[in-house]
Amino acid sequence: MPLVSTSIPNLLNGISQQPQTLRQITQGEEQINATSSVIDGLVRRPPTEHIAKIISSAVSGASVHIVNRDADDQYIVVISATTSSATIQIFSLDGTVTTCTTPDGVDYLFCANPAQDLEFLTVADYTFVVNKTKTVGMETAVTNGVVTSQHQEFTDLPTDATINNIYEIIGDNTNQFDNYYVKALSVNTYEETVKPSIKYQLDATTMPHSLVLTSGSFAFRKNTWGERTVGDEDSAPNPSFVGRTISNIFFYKNRLGLLSDEYVLFSQSASFFNFFPTSVTAVLDDAPIDVSVSHTKVSLLKHAIPFNESLTLFSDSTQFTIETGGILTPKTISIVPSTEFENDTTVAPVGAGNYLYFTTKRGDFTSIREYYVESDTVIVDASEVTSHVPKYIPKNVVKLASSSNEDVLFVLSKTDRSKLYAYRWFWQGTTKMVSSWSEWQLDSGDSILDMTILENELFFVISRADGVHIEKVKLQYPIDTGLDFCVRVDRKISLTGTYDAPTDTTTWTLPYAYSGAMKAIKSGAWASRKGTDITVTRPTTTTVAAVGDYSSASVILGVPYTTSYKFSTQFVRENQGKQSVQSGRLQLRTMRLNYENTGFFKVLVTPEGRPTGSYDMTGQILNSTSTTVEDINIVSGTFRFPIQSKNDRVTIQIQSDSHLPCNFQSAEWEGYYTIRSQRI
């Protein structure tokens, strides 16, 4: 029975739900609260940090939007609504309440499901709000005046006209679309005007409203939309969204854009509130644009995403590309179908570098596609990045958030709002070296209302039993001040305690309520034993206490979370590790884990039908002068543990609930392998 060994070069490719024999050697069975880093290997995910509690009661069904005007003006908008009421609450990103007035009321926000029915777009000081249930209408008011006379050509107009008289130029009698109207400015000077006695104003109460930022406060109000000032209902027709609902709003090439059914509309260039032409005698380059997509299938447009120097439109089963030839004008615009992929239109696609990510429903689960343009052939395609985890992400996805700096995509589903599904990738040239799915778990009572990534930080708006909180995750793992590592506890906060001498007790008062276990860690401000944890109790849901005087410096407090990685079944492999060998018997003997800058972890080995064996790596190395019992020990090395089981009848799992880091680079196992026949 020969002794064999196999190296697992890294643990970077997340999990796989494929049959065990088809998986890559670098893929696992389970990865929870861990992330794949091409620099550090498999590492514990960064912790969440408490910023502020903004609402004192739990919220569900609200529409939440994070306004990112610039680095100095970032706000959180929370809109709660029913079909007969609505409230707006706005907070700065540090949790400070921001004033919001409603001079025109909030009737426009009335809807049954604000989280689904409201869309937002921030452009400079304006955050546009679209209620997708409102049908756009026209005001009943009509234009003034009467037509004084009709003339065949402009040159037929009188040279002694009365000022403000209106004349109709009828042009070709067989073409009703070439009629236009002029008004006399003087006895022989005219300008284009609008036909008398027709509706000319959009009903602003049914059009998108705006949250307008002025001197640090907001006002929610109607917008003043451009009117029909020339032509008539044939030569200057109502925008196509009149009589329909607006499904989304976007900004592209200095124009405000709206989607409505199969139509895409752009405002006048640099005049975001005007959707009527300023002339009907000529097609101007800056004129509004109103076009529909052309396809054999009904294509109701739901999203418009700038991508690859063009605009990509999404319907439920088709993606369209707007081509402009560089300049967006009524003459240059062209819309062509680019791909035919089913798309869950309730979720907005997101871009990350050269890729767009969008979701597709798959029964009780969700798949994610990576939309891209091949640079050499200009072929558009969308590969599925969940093909090896088809039953991983649950249905009812509500939000995607991505970062091109960190090469990461986060997926949130309302099936369980306490979890995120994280996708990490890394390209080396044209080869994707890392394609890793994992799960981030917050406390089971958490409900993530919204998330976004700002400057390499992932921000959450979380509803809990005691209210709504703002938290963030620093995706780049900055070390804590005075320490040489990042303390891993969720809801992380630094506090200075109050010491009570008669009871010899130090108490820290939390800015939030939490009834579960918490950790207290000495910060880098301590002279000794910095980074070590303090034994604490929980007198109340808002206090943490410890025996002794710990009031001389700040302490880092937070909720412990567990990182878990479960290995796939190990096989003897051939063809440079790409193919598993299923014949023969493999009896695993031991495994070695290579780690760097690690404080604590344990390995759980569970043979089929036998008790679980637990093996701890504490960082304390015997006979090492750098190891002390009192202080933390962040070390690098190799951890060897026994398995003594058949390869397919044992579960091997790494776990850590410590506040200390753990980083795994690779693994290697050895075992006894026997085969009845010789392979040829």
Chart the SSEs and their pairings.
Blueprint: E1 3-8, E2 28-32, E3 34-37, E4 41-44, E5 48-55, E6 63-70, E7 73-81, E8 86-92, E9 97-98, E10 100-101, H1 114-117, E11 118-123, E12 126-131, E13 147-151, E14 166-169, E15 180-186, E16 189-193, E17 209-214, E18 217-221, E19 248-252, E20 255-260, E21 263-266, E22 289-292, E23 303-307, E24 310-314, E25 319-323, E26 334-339, E27 350-352, E28 355-362, E29 365-373, E30 380-384, E31 397-403, E32 408-413, E33 419-428, E34 431-441, E35 447-454, E36 457-464, E37 467-474, E38 490-495, E39 498-500, E40 505-509, E41 519-522, E42 533-534, E43 537-540, E44 543-547, E45 555-559, E46 563-567, E47 572-574, E48 579-581, E49 585-598, E50 601-607, E51 613-617, E52 635-646, E53 650-656, E54 663-674
How would you characterize the overall build of this protein?
The structure is a single chain. The longest helix has 4 residues, at 114-117. The chain is built from 1 helix and 54 strands. It is mainly β. Helix content is 1%, strand content 48%. Strands 1, 3, 4, 49, 52 and 54 form a 6-stranded antiparallel sheet that branches. It is elongated and about 110 Å long. The mean pLDDT is 94. Among the domains are: 3-33 and 574-674, no CATH class; 147-193, no CATH class; 489-559.
Can you give keywords for this protein?
single chain, 680 residues, mainly beta, 6-stranded antiparallel β-sheet, 5-stranded antiparallel β-sheet, 1 helix, 48% strand
